Amino acid sequence: MNNNNLKINFNNPKLEISAGDVFQLPADNLPEIVFSGKSNVGKSSIINKIINRKSFARVSNTPGKTSTINFYNTGVVRLVDLPGYGYAKRSFSEKKRWSELVQSYFLNRKNITLVVQIIDIRHLPSLEDLQMVKYLIDSQLPFVVSLNKIDKLNKTQREIKLSKINSELKYNNINVLVLSSKTGENIETLRQIICSSVQLLPLKKA
Fold this sequence. Notes:
Number of helices: 5
Order of helices and strands: EEHEEHEHEHEH
Strand content: 15-25%
CATH topology: Rossmann fold
CATH class: Alpha Beta
Helix content: 25-40%
Shape: globular
Radius of gyration: 16 Å
CATH architecture: 3-Layer(aba) Sandwich
CATH superfamily: P-loop containing nucleotide triphosphate hydrolases
Distance between the termini: 12 Å
Structural class: alpha/beta
């Protein structure tokens, strides 16, 4: 399949499936944009802003509530909402199930086009955030670090936090984007990054 000049309609997605185990994952036949991050960092809210819907992707104020991989199908690409990591109150068995599900997803999907790694700009990256970034680099997966909740900071605070986070990441040439799922700041830029990533990656056969 040739993805040149591919156009994505972000305004008409469908919830394809909420997969609780690897056997429920849909056919690997579309480019996939993956949203990853800690619990309650705003993954679903960012997806909702991208597709111009207020409550399409499942948003919860309770950290750790989402325990499935949610696939939203636009007809051209899938937006994939991973369960959040790093929630301390998960049971050991639940953490193990989450880890195996997400690891299996990354190891077996051939058409991961872009990973949007989301971090709350108000806090330094957690150990899990840093491990995830390292995994993405080691796996040679294309990704962008999206610093969400920029609306919570003033200009001076933004500059200070951005400098500290860049220092914590300790990697060169990482694409970092500040944004807000509340105000929509830089959401259009993220849409453009998604479209460019899809156009540049040939679709692989499942």
